[in-house]
Structures are given as C-alpha cells and as structure tokens.
Amino acid sequence: MLGLDAAGKTTILYKLKLGQSVTTIPTVGFNVETVTYKNVKFNVWDVGGQDKIRPLWRHYYTGTQGLIFVVDCADRDRIDEARQELHRIINDREMRDAIILIFANKQDLTDAMKPHEIQEKLGLTRIRDRNCHSLIVREKMSLPFWSSACWLQGA
Description:
three-stranded parallel sheet, two-stranded antiparallel sheet, about 25% strand, nucleotide-binding, Small_GTPase_ARF/SAR, metal-binding
C-alpha cells in the first residue's frame, strides 16, 4: 500500500485488520499485517509516504502482485504529486505485472475531489495496458473495500 504521506494508508490498514479506527502516527519505514477476508489472506505492506522515504519504495516492488495506491481526495495541493508518484510506480519494470487498486480516500470531507476529477487528475483514463480499478471511499469503508479486495485477489 503506497501513497503520499497523510493519505490515510495506516488508518486503512488497521481499520481492515482490527475492524475499528485507531490513532496513528506518521509511518517512518513500514507496517506489515496479514488481513484475512473470506479465507483469503492478504499480506499488506503499508510503506511511509514522506518525500524522503519515497525513493525507497522501489525496494518493496519485487514480488508485488497488487498495489493499493491511496489518494487523499481533499488534498488538492498535492494531487499532481500523487499522479507523478503513481505513474513512477506503475512504469517501473518490477511493477509491470502488478494489478492496481486506486483507493480514493476521504471522500466524506467537504472539499474532496469528485470521482471523475480524481480519475482525470491521476491520469487513470490513460492507463490502458494495466489491470486497474478505482475505489471511492467514504467514512464507512469495509464493504466497498472488501468487494474491491475480492477484485484484487481475482484479477
């Protein structure tokens, strides 16, 4: 699971793992958890998103089957930065076979970008040679996430 800092990666991970919201601090390094749904185990690596950590992301690519890229829909100032990082990841040869789930987080905030705006600003319509799916997330995310996780597992 990758994305810019403060996108909500760690909160999402522990909401899925524990079924409840927990207080988090910025991730320096990574968190790794196994999350089980319908007898399917997902090993989820939540890697810190600060700009100084991002060059290290590529060290986590080997063997990656799926990428969950988390975007803060209310962070209009950094959506271009998120797009650049997303495309840098998916264009890396180590990630060419990974399927991609875009997790558009924080849709419940008043200034959040709408789904079509996120797709446009991230350049998702130009991703043609990849198995890519986007998920728009509001406050209660468990059901939509798990339907997308099933897509991720079955893709």
